From TrEMBL:
Organism, as annotated: Flavobacterium paronense
Alphabetic keyword roster: Membrane, Transmembrane, Transmembrane helix
Name of the molecule in the record: DUF2157 domain-containing protein
InterPro entries the UniProt entry points to: DUF2157
Keyword Transmembrane: yes
Source organism, top-level taxon: Bacteria
Transmembrane intervals: 43-61, 67-86, 106-124, 130-151, 156-176, 188-205, 217-234, 240-257, 264-282, 294-317
Entries under Pfam families matching the protein: DUF2157 (PF09925)
Length: 325
């Protein structure tokens, strides 16, 4: 039995909320060493979906000349149809509250069908240009949102939001960040901030009308990353000082909301984006003011500043955990 659980059960026994017989039963059960494989099985199912869709993609790519485009589309459509048939059959219907399948396997069938639908739409657009320019991403996004709200699937919701970002031209991937796609295209900065603001407003509106309230954190996560990354990118633009206030207001909001909902994830990234933004502004001020006579002092203080920043970051995380516990 873990130390914390042992102390907790001992406290319950001391307060006479547990009997000696119940305490003995708890210790006997713990001695069996039984543990749940629930998370491990869900991870394997998720991994299986990714491997299957990757395998389908690889098979199509390597054998497209011999298989044929129509055959590939028919195969994808057949798989999607079978998956959605069982998903709709086992689904409990749309509800504003959280609704789960009786068997969690169907959550992964919905995810599989959503991914395959996006592959089908993308392939159809690439080969036959069925949709207008960029509309294929919007259609994929709509499919993701439908599956998310009807089947109560957070993974499908992530696909829907990602498709919406792709539709307006934003691709927030490690490759995109390394190649400075956002920083080299100022219009994407404004689009990203607008999309982040829209997701934030939708999250708050959904919370008020009690529409899938458990999606709230996911919307906030995407909104934080979009507004945070795009606002930091805007600090390198001509009118950078305007975005200082936007970044500060956004980070203050997420700082407060992370305490309200108890999300360490939101808190960490809020502090991280704030730290990056603060350093950019600090270096701009140093560059603006002539510190040529103090460069040696700044060189000495820089390591101290970064070490102090790490120490302060750790203290903030500990303080957050202590407050929530």
């Amino acid at each position: 039995m873990g130390k914390e659980i042992n102390e907790f059960t001992e406290t319950l026994l001391t307060r006479e909320l547990l009997t000696d017989a119940q305490m003995k039963s708890i210790k006997q059960y713990d001695a069996l060493g039984i543990f749940s494989l629930h998370n491990e099985l869900r991870f394997l199912l998720y991994l299986g979906v990714l491997l299957f869709t990757s395998g389908i993609g690889t098979l199509v790519y390597k054998n497209i000349d011999s298989i044929g485009h129509v055959a590939v589309l028919c195969l994808l459509l057949l798989l999607i149809g079978i998956g959605f048939y069982f998903s709709f059959k086992k689904a409990k219907g749309f509800s504003k509250d959280e609704v789960l399948f009786d068997n969690p396997v169907y959550d992964y069938i919905v995810l599989l069908c959503t991914i395959l639908s996006c592959v089908f739409i993308g392939y159809l657009q690439y080969q036959y240009q069925v949709f207008g320019y960029g509309l294929s991403s919007l259609v994929c996004s709509l499919v993701g949102f439908f599956c998310a709200y009807y089947f109560d699937n957070k993974s499908a919701l992530s696909i829907g939001i990602t498709g919406l970002a792709t539709f307006i031209g934003i691709s927030i991937t490690p490759k995109a960040l390394l190649e400075n796609e956002i920083y080299n295209n100022p219009s994407l900065i404004y689009y990203g901030i607008a999309l982040g603001g829209f997701l934030l407003l939708w999250a708050e509106y959904s919370e008020r009308i009690s529409l899938k309230k458990h999606f709230h954190l996911l919307f906030l996560t995407f909104a934080l990353h979009l507004i945070g990354i795009c606002s930091i990118a805007a600090l390198f633009e001509t009118y950078w000082y305007i975005f200082v206030f936007l970044l500060a207001a956004t980070l203050y909001y997420f700082y407060k909301i992370s305490y309200v909902i108890g999300s360490i994830f939101l808190f960490v990234f809020t502090v991280l984006y704030g730290y990056i933004g603060f350093n950019i502004i600090l270096f701009k001020l140093i560059d603006f003011i002539d510190f040529s006579d103090f460069w040696q002092l700044l060189t000495i203080l820089t390591p101290v500043y970064f070490i102090g920043s790490i120490f302060g970051f750790i203290r903030l995380i500990k303080h957050f955990n202590n407050e929530k516990s």
